[in-house]
Design a protein that fits this description.
By secondary structure, the protein is an all-alpha fold. 79% of the residues lie in helices and 0% in strands. The chain is globular, with a radius of gyration of 18 Å. It starts with 8 loop residues before the first helix and ends with a helix.
Amino acid sequence: MPDILQIPPAQLFALLAAVGFAAGLNVYATVAALGLLARFGHLPLPPGLQLLESWTVIAASTALFAIEFVADKIPAFDLIWNALHTFVRVPVAGLLAYQATRQLSPEQQLLATLLGAAMAFAAHGGKTAVRAAVTPSPEPFSNITLSLAEDVLAVALTWLAARHPYIAATITAAFVVVIVILVRWVIRALRALFRGAEQELSG
């Protein structure tokens, strides 16, 4: 893997788009994966992100990931957890992109920051919408399965971004399209549910 400072801007933006999306799914798993990849020489980090290589940051993010691993699999509570993490996942993704592009022009750095935050927002929004649709289900296995899939995807996408940025970015773009379709479907389903409930109450 070449030094990230020597990566062409287009390739770096592809990497950051995938990492931003991963952070939107599980920011702690993403930060831990970045730190471990850097620690073992698979992803040389720019100066602005070298703090992630420290065992302290890796241990802290892994501990927070363990907490989220449990909290995110509890029906109903996961909605509260995800709502609160709107103020964690999106800003952290933007900050990671900002710090990773300090060697670029201010305009490119701003664009990278917006890209990272936007990808995180898309992933986080899609995750929250799907959870809102699944949570009313009486069995807990749907939540657990979704959460496990999100955890695996966050780590796998971070690893793939380090090895094959363009492939990771292409997969990310496909997921964004799927999320847009799913969110629209979930909104329609919830509206139909509320309309049905109102009709029952009025009847």
